[in-house]
Design a protein that fits this description.
Number of strands: 7
Bound molecules: nicotinamide-adenine-dinucleotide
Largest sheet: 7 strands, parallel
Mean pLDDT: 98
Length: 255
């Protein structure tokens, strides 16, 4: 394959779809993967060069199957974006083991084994200047987030994992970075607005106003705001960046 090849997990919706679109606009051949196979197919169908594959990141062999398929068919892998993630809001005292396991399975174990499958394939294909990007969150840097303790734990884990991967994979010419979005308008956000409204006893509109008031740049984030930063992390301009956690949140959290 002449074009560069990128895999994106959870690319059937929201931020993942915007990342896949950004990479397609940057002339990548995009492997659109999602738990929801139809959503992945619908997104892939909008690109000039793409393929959809069903992948549940909680099943490591699913990610290995994606990597094997890319090795066989495209024979090239330049970028792997581990984006798939879930959230469910609840008070810390109410989070049970089942909910904790579900969140950690997708958000941390999922990133661990999906990105591992990507890294192994890049090494086997002898990719030069490879890039892995793990989508974390503002809640990966600030635990002062209401009703998301399991999510916070998973996303802090993603930042540590990203640093460990960056350190170990640098000799293989693979750069590994995280991106930390803020309050992004996606289907996940619609669910969170309803949960937080319920937990606070206020309306979703009032929660939205709180989030905008918390954002110095004065608006909710768009999936494209995140995708543009991911695009930068796949470009030559970022070739000396590795192990970083790049915040893109309109100033909602500064570190
Ligand atoms: N929306 C936000 O405000 C926000 C903020 C910070 C970080 N993030 C992170 O960005 C990423 C994308 O979030 P989003 O807002 O686009 O969410 P979303 O719910 O709109 O989309 C998530 C996608 O991931 C897929 N998915 C869920 N479980 C999966 C699994 N086990 N395997 C494969 N795919 C799976 C879903 O089918 C869906 O297509 C997540 O990692 C999320 O934690 C989102």
């Amino acid at each position: 394959m002449d074009k560069k090849v990128a895999v994106v997990t959870g690319a059937g919706s929201g931020i993942g779809r915007a990342i896949a679109t950004e990479l397609s606009n940057r002339d990548f051949h995009v492997i659109v993967t999602d738990l929801n196979e139809q959503a992945a197919k619908d997104v892939a169908a909008t690109f000039p060069s793409a393929r959809a594959i069903k992948c549940d990141v909680t099943i490591p062999t699913d990610s290995v199957a994606v990597a094997n398929s890319v090795k066989e068919i495209e024979k090239r892998l330049d970028v792997w974006v581990s984006n798939a993630g879930v959230s469910k809001m609840a008070k810390f005292l109410d989070i049970d083991e089942k909910m904790y396991d579900f969140t950690l399975d997708v958000n941390l174990k999922g990133v661990f084994f999906a990105s591992q499958a990507g890294a192994r394939a890049m090494i086997e294909l002898k990719t030069k200047d490879a890039r892995i990007i793990n989508i974390a969150s503002m809640a990966a840097k600030a635990g002062r987030v209401p009703y998301l303790a399991d999510y916070v734990a998973s996303k802090f884990g993603v930042l540590g994992l990203t640093q460990a991967m960056a350190y170990e994979l640098a000799p293989n010419d693979i750069r590994v970075n995280s991106v930390c979005p803020g309050f992004v308008s996606t289907p996940m956000q619609v669910r969170e607005l309803a949960w937080e409204a319920d937990l606070r006893g206020i309306s979703p509109e009032d929660v939205k106003k709180m989030w905008i008031n918390d954002t110095p740049l004065g608006r909710l984030e768009l999936p494209e705001d995140v995708a543009k930063v991911v695009g930068f992390l796949t470009s030559k301009d970022s070739e000396f960046i590795t192990g970083e956690a790049i915040a893109v949140n309109g100033g909602a959290f500064m570190d």
